[in-house]
């Protein structure tokens, strides 16, 4: 039987997109349409659930089921939706404020439980919708409307939260790198369990240029590394740089210098259950070591909603319940007449 093929246009609903001109959300939305078409899940079998924030307007621009929920609760709603509708493909869209501040508790528990949802985390390191307050990912010393003399706290690093919650899938891309963004979204959709994709996104109004140190074409090749499973960890304009093991840490070297050869360069294994090296790769920041983009971790693990379904069937078979009423009446009970 031939499968239906979809185009990006099948996932667009024709609504006028109301983000600021030049906002990175436009690029992410367009890539998401293309990624969904590549994966091939029908629009009516797809749901996009968001919280509150600029990024959370995204469901309005999708020809799928959608739910614009309340601040910080997207993961809770996405979890409930997926467990109740296991046949549906569920995407969650949250910003760094919505997802990691008021929604931080839901975020880590969705990852810990390994719900089969695809979580897109838009990270512009600012509260854009509420007009420019610092967010949980803003750097120490960051000057904003709510921190006029600079923040006095350290930021969350999304990858660190994912690994701390024992996450099994983490990927990263940049709003201006469309091919990589599509690559990681497709991989996230095909992964069974919670997939977290951090999208480094630019807010042209309140935090313009926050990611320039890695997005500028002049030095992007030197400050980022595109990781692909089974391939050498190479970077630089001509792939002349590589990552090698240096004791328990990573080190960037120039191939052919200081005795280093291509054989010394590490091969990326996204599927190894150990997250030791994955954490190191995800924590690289583009300064002393290049920022990692692509799929950093992609490991199979029991999926929450599938385990719930399996448990229900086991108990139902063992107890002989065919309905809730049967279960209630199975114990000691009496009739009042």
Q: What do these coordinates show?
A:
With 337 residues, the chain is an alpha/beta fold. 30% of the residues lie in helices and 18% in strands. It is built from eleven helices and eleven strands. The chain has helices at residues 24-39, 74-84, 96-102, 104-113, 158-164, 178-190, 212-215, 220-223, 276-283, 304-319, 324-329, and strands at 46-50, 65-68, 89-95, 118-123, 169-174, 195-200, 224-227, 234-235, 241-246, 249-254, 291-298. The termini are far apart.
Low-pLDDT runs: none
The average pLDDT value, as a whole number, equals 95
End-to-end CA span = 58 Å
The total of helices stands at 11
Overall form: globular
Strand composition percent: 15-25%
The number of E-state strands comes to: 11
Give, in spatial order, the strands making up the sheet with the most strands.
2-1-3-4-6-5-11-7
Q: From the alpha-carbon coordinates, what is the Rg to the nearest angstrom? A: 22 Å
Q: Could you say which structural class the secondary elements and strand pairing correspond to?
A: alpha/beta
Determine the fraction of residues in helical runs and give it as a percent range.
25-40%
Question: Major sheet: size, sense and barrel closure?
Answer: 8 strands, mixed
Order of helices and strands: HEEHEHHEHEHEHHEEEEHEHH
